[in-house]
User: Fold this.
Amino acid sequence: MRYTSQHSVPREEIVLRIGQGFDFHALKAGRRLVLGGIVIDYDKGLEGHSDADVLTHAIIDALLGGAGLGDIGMHFPDDDPSYKDANSIDLLKEVCLWIRNRGFEVSNVDATVFAQEPKLSPYRQAIEEKLATAMGIAPDCMNLKATTTERLGFVGRGEGIGSSAAALLRPAGGAV
Assistant:
């Protein structure tokens, strides 16, 4: 039995897509730490070809996956000199344009940063707002959590930082 009402949308007209992303980078002295497009005050940064923003990279992968567009490495390879020191927020904006061209828009994103240090709570709101603006969504549609690994593994030893993200895409212009 299927519940219906005069306001029900036929199932075949609802096309929701979900994607997930995951990224980790090693910490390195002499680099700035960027998470979600915000520079974090810390004595190390993440090693990588671009700005190494693991949070934005995980979100990009989640969006690309939801849209069926592969992964970040396919579109922004780390052996391409044109992406050396690239601003990941710019890459995120580009990916959002591709998603809109496929007929989708971002509904919401839920992300987690895995870091023993630094504490991210002072930066949480600024990060959420920066990412939401880049994706063209309301700030309350971008949720960020941060957690430690209780000193376990390379994250717990302070050797790196990681992130995971889930993104829900909906048909562009539609409210679901």
User: Anything to note?
Assistant: Residues 27 and 159 are 5 Å apart (CA to CA). The domain at 17-171 is CATH 3.30.1330.50 (60s Ribosomal Protein L30; Chain: A;). The chain has one domain: 17-171.
